[in-house]
Amino acid sequence: MTVPRSRRRRTPVRALPDAGRAVVEFLKTEAGGGAVLLVAALIALVWANSPWDAAYDDFWHHEISVGPSRWAVRETLQHWVNDGLMALFFFVVGLEIKREMVCGELRDRRTAALPAVAALGGMVVPAALFRLVTGGGPAAHGWGIPMATDIAFAVGVLALLGSRVPPSLRVFLLTLAIVDDIGAIAVIAVFYSANVEPQWLLAAAGLLGIVVVARPLGRWWVVGFVPVALLVWYCTYRSGVHPTIAGVALGLVTPLGPVGGRPLIERLEAVLHPWSSYLVIPVFALANAGVSLTGDSLGDAAASRLTWAVVVGLVVGKMLGIGAATGLMVRSRLGRLPSGVGPRHVLGAAALGGIGFTVSLFITGLAFSDPALQAQAKVGILAGSTLAALVGASILVRAPAEGSQG
C-alpha cells in the first residue's frame, strides 16, 4: 500500500548525519594534520642535529614577558607554546569530548564501554610496565609518558592503509583515543601539577561559572567568551595547575546546542580544529622534538632504563593493555566489536595506540626538569612511536578485509 506523501514520516535532514559528518571531518583533519606533524618533527630533528643546533636552543629558550610588571607572565618561547598555544589544542579536545559524550559514541554506555575499557587497559598497563622497567628513582616520575595516544599520527597511518581498514575501526580508534585523552588530562591535572594555590583555582572556577550562566546571552556570549577564556587561562596558570587544563574545561562548558541560532560546538570545531592540527601541533613539535641524536646521546639513551621504559610502555604496554581489555570485554559479552572489525584489527589498532608522540612529549616536559632525562625520554618516544606505527601497520596490512574471528 502506498502511504500518502502527506502522512509519511520524514527524518529531519540534519538529525542523523550531523554526528557522522562531524566524525568524518574530524578524522580527515587529524589525518592531514598527522602529515604536517611528521614534517615538523623531522625539521626539528634536522635542525637540532645540524651545525645550527645552538640556534635551535637559543630560539626556543628566548624569554618573553607579557603583561604589566606585577601581573606579567614571563616564560621561554618553548613554554609559551607548551603552556599557551597548546591550550587551544586542549580546548578542541574538550569540545570533541563533550560532543562525543552528548551525541556521539560515548553517549550510549553499552557502545562506549568497549573502547572506554580498552583505553583504560591501554593506560594502566603501559604505566605499570614503565614503573617496572625504571625500577624507581627520578626516572619513575615519567610514568604518565607511555599512557598517551597521538590520534593524528594513528589516524594518519589508518588513512595510508585506505580500504584495507574497515571504517568502523577508525571510529573505534577515535573513541578509544578520546577516552585516552580524558585519562591523560586527569593525570596531568592531578599528578603533574604542583604548589596549587586555591584562591587562583577558585577564581578560575568562578569564571567558568560565568561562562555557564551566560549561555542564554546568545551572540553576546560568543563576544564575551574570548576575554573570559583568557582570564580563565591566567588564573589556572597562577594556580599551579597546568594552564592547558583551562582549555579542556572551557571546551566542556561550551554549549552544545545553538547559540544565537547557530550550532556553536560544530562551528567552533570547524574553525579551530584545522588551526589546532595544522599550526598548533606542528609548532609544538618544532619546539619539543628537537633532540640530539649524536653517537654519545644515543649511547646514553640506549643505556638508560628511562628510554627503554618508554619504548616498552608504548609498544608492549599498549598492545597488551588494549588487546587484553578488549578481549575480556568481548569474551564476557560486556562489549561487542564494531561491524567488520576482527581480533587482528583490534591488535593492529592497539599497536597504533602506542604512537604517543604529542602528549607523550608534553608530559615529558612536565615530568622532568633535568635536560638529560628529557632527552632520554624523547629518544624513547621517537623510537617507541616509530616502532608502534610499523608494528600496527604490518598487522593491519595482513588482517582480513572483513572482520573475521579467524
How would you sum up this structure, described in words?
- With 406 residues, the protein is an all-alpha fold.
- The protein has a single domain (33-193, 242-397), classed as Na+/H+ antiporter like fold (Up-down Bundle).
- The protein has 15 helices and four strands.
- It has helices at residues 17-48, 53-60, 77-103, 109-134, 151-161, 167-191, 198-213, 219-239, 244-253, 264-288, 295-302, 305-331, 343-352, 357-367, 371-397, and strands at 63-66, 73-76, 258-259, 262-263.
- The chain has a two-stranded antiparallel sheet with strand order 1-2.
- A hairpin with a 6-residue loop joins β1 (63-66) and β2 (73-76).
- α7 packs antiparallel against α8 (219-239).
What is the highest CATH level, the class?
Answer: Mainly Alpha
Specify the biggest β-sheet.
2 strands, antiparallel
| Number of separate domains | 1
Q: What's the overall average pLDDT, rounded?
A: 85
Outline: globular
The DSSP helix count reads 15
Helix content: 55-70%
Order of helices and strands: HHEEHHHHHHHEEHHHHHH
Calculate Rg over CA atoms. 22 Å
Low-confidence stretches: 1-17
Give the strand order of the largest sheet, numbering strands 1, 2, ... along the chain.
Answer: 1-2
The count of DSSP E runs of length 2 or more, i.e. the number of strands, is: 4
Strand content: under 5%
**CATH-defined superfamily:** Na+/H+ antiporter like domain
Kindly report how far apart the N and C termini lie.
Answer: 45 Å
Class by SSE composition: mainly alpha
* CATH topology-level name: Na+/H+ antiporter like fold
